[in-house]
Each structure stands twice: as structure tokens, then as C-alpha cells.
Design brief:
The chain is mainly α. The protein has one domain. The chain has nine helices and two strands; from the N terminus they run H-E-H-H-H-H-E-H-H-H-H. Strands 1-2 form a two-stranded antiparallel ribbon. The chain is globular, with a radius of gyration of 15 Å. The protein starts with 16 loop residues before the first helix and ends with a helix. The N terminus is likely disordered.
């Protein structure tokens, strides 16, 4: 039977979800000059859908997103995990060819530092609310929308900074699942509609 999509990092009240995830990333950045994506994702466990979406989303919306092709790579990982949410899998899987891709530890540490104020802001307004919106089938709906958002990233990479929009919304969905916050889920749903409209405006 599938386990909950909420992860073990989440405090009982969800009040430090984003900060805890950045703390984990900071720990990874302190371990060496170069990290593989498998190193980063393994730090959150193989059942942690929410944190992985937060990580891929926030990193894609951070200064790391300026590295060519990295936003699309992060979107691909987010899409793979989103598909597994839709399918109801209880254990995460990522192909070996992606596991070995490397992220410079110094750039990761810099990105985490830049994201701290964002995480503090999100945590200030995060808690366990309207949990009906983060239970099945809403979890699978969130996964399906994240799939669509991830598909927008490669074409939006052609527009400076535009790929940050879908990545930011993916991070919101991940935070909603991590903190079991239905209010954040509702905001993510609204933001996904706005992002879709913005993407249409950019690309048409």
C-alpha cells in the first residue's frame, strides 16, 4: 500500500519545512567540491516527493538556473517525480544517467544562501491547514500540473529568467505536499494558471 507523500523532514506543524530543506542542501554543499544529483536527492530519502519538488523548483529558480541546460535538467527530474506521484508510486526512482550529473558545491552553497530569505518568508506563512487539499486525489492533481509546468521549462529557457516561473510554482506545490498546507496548495494552483498564461504570452 502506498505511503503518504509527506516526508520525514516535515515538522509536526510544517512551520520550518522550507528552512529544513535548505539546511539539508547546505549540509550537502559542505561535503565536497562537486556533488552528483543522486547525492542531493538521496539526502531526502526515496519516499520524499514533496522535498524533491521543492529542491528542483527552488534550485531552478535560483542563481543555479543561470547555468545553461540546468533548468531543463531540474525540470526533467521534477517531471519524473511528478509522474510517479500521478502513478501513486511510494518509492522514488531516477535513471542512472541523471544520477551522475554533477552540481558544483560552491554554486549550490551560494544558491542556498540566496534562497534563505525566500525560505524564511514561506515558512512564516506555512502550517497544517485545509489538509483536504493535499490528500488524494489532490496529490495526483498536483503531480499532473507539475508535469505540465516542467514541460514549459525547456522552451522558456530561451527567454531570460522566464524558466524561473514554472520552477517557482513547482516549488510551491512541493512545499504544500511537504507541510500539508492546503492554503499553499491553493496558491500553487492559482500560480500555475498565471504561469501558463505568462508562458503563452512569452512564446506566442
Amino acid at each position: 500500500m502506498a505511503t503518504s507523500l509527506a516526508d520525514d523532514l516535515r515538522p509536526d506543524d510544517g512551520s520550518h519545512a522550507a528552512r529544513d530543506i535548505l539546511d539539508k542542501l547546505d549540509d550537502c554543499a559542505d561535503k565536497g567540491r562537486s556533488l552528483t544529483l543522486d547525492d542531493l536527492l538521496s539526502a531526502f530519502g526515496r519516499r520524499s516527493y514533496g522535498p524533491v519538488l521543492v529542491v528542483t523548483g527552488l534550485l531552478g529558480a535560483s542563481p543555479l538556473g543561470a547555468i545553461p541546460t540546468l533548468p531543463s535538467l531540474l525540470a526533467l527530474i521534477g517531471a519524473l517525480y511528478s509522474a510517479q506521484i500521478v502513478l501513486g508510486r511510494d518509492r522514488l526512482w531516477i535513471p542512472d544517467m541523471l544520477k551522475s550529473r554533477k552540481v558544483p558545491a560552491d554554486k549550490l552553497g551560494h544558491a542556498v544562501k540566496k534562497l534563505r530569505p525566500v525560505a524564511d518568508f514561506l515558512d512564516r506563512y506555512t502550517g497544517r491547514r485545509l489538509e483536504v487539499l493535499v490528500r488524494a486525489p489532490s496529490q495526483r492533481l498536483a503531480g499532473a500540473i507539475c508535469l505540465l509546468l516542467a514541460a514549459l521549462v525547456p522552451p522558456l529557457e530561451l527567454v531570460p529568467f522566464a524558466a524561473m516561473l514554472p520552477h517557482g510554482v513547482i516549488a510551491l506545490f512541493g512545499l504544500a505536499l511537504t507541510a500539508r498546507d492546503g492554503v499553499i496548495m491553493a496558491l500553487a494552483l492559482a500560480a500555475s494558471v498565471a504561469t501558463g498564461y505568462a508562458a503563452y504570452s512569452f512564446l506566442m
